[in-house]
Amino acid sequence: MIVPRDMETSKVFEAVVIGAGIMGSSTAYFLSKKLGNRVALIEQFDFLHRRGSSHGDSRITRLTYPQEYYTFLMKTSYELWSEAEAESGLNVFIQTGGLDFASKDTPAIHNVIAAAKKWNISHEVLTPAEVNARFPTITLPENYIGVYSPASGVLKASKAVGMFQNLARKNGCHLLDNANIVEIAVKKDSNGEEIFEITSTTHGIITAKKCVITAGAWTQKALDKVQLRSGKLSLTLPLKPRQVTVCYWEVAAPEKFSGINKTFPVFICYDDKYHVYGTPALEFPNLLKCCSHEGPNCDPDKRDFYPGVQEIENEVAPLVQKVFVGISPKPVFTESCMYTMSPDEDYIVDQVPGVQGLYVGAGGSGHAFKMGPTIGTMLAGFTVNTYKHFICICKFTEMVICLKLLGWFTQTA
Ligand SMILES: Cc1cc2nc3c(=O)[nH]c(=O)nc-3n(C[C@H](O)[C@H](O)[C@H](O)COP(=O)(O)OP(=O)(O)OC[C@H]3O[C@@H](n4cnc5c(N)ncnc54)[C@H](O)[C@@H]3O)c2cc1C
């Protein structure tokens, strides 16, 4: 926990961000660029803990998406990641190239190609033989197509979250960890403006003019702590925390699975039978990371951390055996992680309806890490009132904020 000396004397923060995963840490950074030490980032556990969604060594980043609005947003994200790397002097992105694949009759793979064409994303559509010629350890079935994208790669997850926290701190942001927020009371100040009295377990009451909730799988629990003057906030978001299993598979020829020198790509299988993705052998030189997107719903405070045997046996192991040459039949070890799923797997990024100055970023749905800085700029933009048009458009429409509703996603390239 880093508490600058002026913390006690800072009477009212301009903005407080609750939850220091990738969404909250990047939001705090972008806010701190404008607001300096009038911002605080608060985390219930240690910074960079392993109980949420943003920890670990690798997340896939890519411009290729079946939804063209995400391809569009990712163009901005790539720029923001690279600016943050330059400012911090850290390297958190490893460009490995990426392979999206699926059987030819899978609509998502054709949507990936259409979105890449629309936004001029460099890509190659490959036959299984062409994929195998480039990556001898990948053997796609005959009825599959591959889409290779050179821009894809790996983001070093925990290092990247730490990077945004450190950049925010350099701008004066107050970083408080092991501080669980137990109540967010919405009050009026002497000028009649809304203010938030945020009660934490370790820092008493922290007062702020704006409050951003980026609490990942705990988002609903955090919203349930909002106390309006008229009583408890009644807002149920359609979010479902999901426990997923990260699997590492031993490979016989590590040099052929390495992400270095583009010998092996990050990969995603869009086939209806296999919602599976993975990264090259980077964390451990002889272990390929390959996981399922599926898993059971969970309560983030009562997880069992057990591996998802069903997903491994029914989905990941069959795909691994079908597609990769020289790989172990079972994972040699597994880790547990969490997604926060929205019904359509789109993120929720908006103002809480009816509560001026309260914002939420959530529903990462297993694909928000790469978009962290874009979501951070949006939330910071709402908070400092530079993105008013977003607020008009996405007002918890049907209880799910659809970034796709934003008019500018439909503009032509
Ligand atoms: C195994 C796995 C693989 C993934 N792969 C990819 C990938 O390849 N590419 C990609 O783009 N995305 C990927 N994702 C998804 C991505 O990592 C998540 O969407 C993203 O990290 C979500 O970040 P977040 O900030 O919303 O949530 P979190 O990282 O969970 O952060 C929320 C934080 O809020 C804190 N908090 C909650 N309640 C309180 C409170 N009351 N007081 C204070 N603090 C609180 C929590 O402790 C937590 O630290 C993957 C996720 C997993 C689990």
TrEMBL record:
Top-level division of the source organism's lineage: Eukaryota
Transmembrane segments: 12-31
Signal peptide residues on this chain, from the entry's feature table: none
Pfam family name, one: DAO
InterPro entries: FAD-dep_OxRdtase (IPR006076), MTOX (IPR045170)
Keywords: FAD, Flavoprotein, Membrane, Oxidoreductase, Transmembrane, Transmembrane helix
Keyword Membrane attached: yes
Cofactor: FAD
Record has Transport as a keyword: no
GO molecular function terms attached to this record: flavin adenine dinucleotide binding; sarcosine oxidase activity
Annotated PANTHER family: FAD DEPENDENT OXIDOREDUCTASE DOMAIN-CONTAINING PROTEIN, PEROXISOMAL SARCOSINE OXIDASE
Family of this protein: Belongs to the MSOX/MTOX family.
Protein name (Swiss-Prot/TrEMBL): FAD dependent oxidoreductase domain-containing protein
Species this chain originates from: Allacma fusca
